[in-house]
Write a structure and sequence with these properties.
Distance between the termini: 27 Å
Number of domains: 2
Helix content: 40-55%
Largest sheet: 4 strands, mixed
CATH topology of the largest domain: Four Helix Bundle (Hemerythrin (Met), subunit A)
Structural class: alpha/beta
CATH class of the largest domain: Mainly Alpha
Radius of gyration: 20 Å
Strand order of the largest sheet: 1-5-7-8
Number of helices: 10
Shape: globular
CATH superfamily of the largest domain: CRISPR-associated endonuclease Cas1, C-terminal domain
């Protein structure tokens, strides 16, 4: 899967033959063949001609729009999937309280176990660091899940476990940037900004994927329905937060690919990557998303992008055939 990120402010995207041309002030910045292209992310003040939009819709290529600060604004998508039977089943499962509780419990357990797995992996490489309290806290949260509580209680357990996990996460930074507590609106430090941005990108990818398969991405089971909230996409992201976005953030910071000098601060809106650092981030993000690795549980060689698709189809089978859902896990 190939995704292109367009970040040059003031540029214009046009169609020429079977290619997209990105230009600025009569200067061509890039030519992008449509063959093999799966998605485009427009970042900030960038224009796209109606011919380019029509071409992308005809080609089945999704276009996502983010603000210059990385806030998701919306997606230009081809005609909705004709898989209406999937959507009917999805609505029926939403009205099934037992299904909703069981599926939400599976997602929360996977998220907690993945957080625990990331901590254990890090501690094996850095045995001088102490994580016993955090591991114990996560084990306690997993114990509470055995009672199969209702969704509101699950959300409370998940929130407590997440706070415990992030206390351990803060110990993992080896360079000049550090992390003490998770903050979102606004992100109060560069690490929080990287986390929020990574979660936004993965949520955007899963949102587009769910739409393409035929789901209604606004009907979820762990995240409750709220106006404009892509609850199903947020459900799906939970199993990927720690093993993908958090590990990627650690990699960027601890290897000094991104440093504190790469950010600027807005007093009201938090921290944001500077333009050159943003391009570097996208290069590393694409490399990480397409890198092939071996799934430790299945033995299969996959990329994270192919993993997203596999999990989405598993979810489809779970909803339509009531087959238990198996989340992605690390240990």
């Amino acid at each position: 899967m190939k995704v292109i990120y367009i970040t040059e402010q003031g540029s214009v995207v046009r169609k020429t033959s079977r290619r997209l041309v990105v230009s600025k002030e009569e200067r061509t910045l890039a030519e992008i063949p449509a063959i093999g292209l799966d998605g485009i992310v427009i970042f900030g003040n960038i224009q796209m001609t109606s011919q380019a939009m029509g071409f992308l819709l005809d080609s089945g290529i999704h276009v996502s729009f983010l603000s210059s600060k990385g806030k998701y604004k919306g997606t230009l998508i081809p005609a909705q999937s004709k898989n209406v039977l999937l959507r009917i089943a999805q609505y029926e499962r939403y009205l099934d309280e037992e299904f909703q509780r069981q599926h939400a419990s599976v997602l929360v357990e996977a998220k907690i176990r993945n957080g625990r797995g990331l901590i254990k992996r890090y501690s094996r490489n850095y045995p001088e660091l102490e994580f016993d309290d955090e591991i114990s806290g996560l084990d306690s949260a997993l114990k509470k899940l055995e009672a199969k509580p209702e969704v509101p209680v699950l959300l409370g357990i998940e929130g407590q476990a997440t706070a415990t996990y992030f206390r351990a996460f803060g110990k993992m930074f080896r360079k000049e940037m550090d992390f003490s507590v998770r903050s979102r609106r606004p992100p109060k430090d560069p690490v929080n900004a990287l986390l929020s941005f990574g979660y936004t990108l993965v949520t955007n990818e899963t949102f587009s994927l769910l739409l393409a398969i035929g789901f209604d991405p606004y009907i979820g089971y762990l995240h409750q329905i709220d106006y404009g909230r892509p609850s199903l996409a947020l459900d799906m992201v939970e199993e990927f937060r720690h093993p993908i976005v958090d590990r990627f953030t650690l990699y960027l910071v601890n290897n000094r690919i991104i440093s504190g000098e790469d950010f600027f601060e807005n007093e009201e809106r938090g921290f944001f990557l500077k333009p050159e650092a943003l391009k570097r981030y996208f290069e590393q993000y694409e490399k990480r998303m397409n890198e092939v690795f071996q799934n430790q549980f299945t033995g299969e060689k996959v990329s994270y992008r192919s993993l997203f698709r596999q999990q989405a189809y598993k979810l489809s089978k779970t909803i339509q055939a009531r087959v238990p859902y198996t989340p992605y896990r690390i240990e």
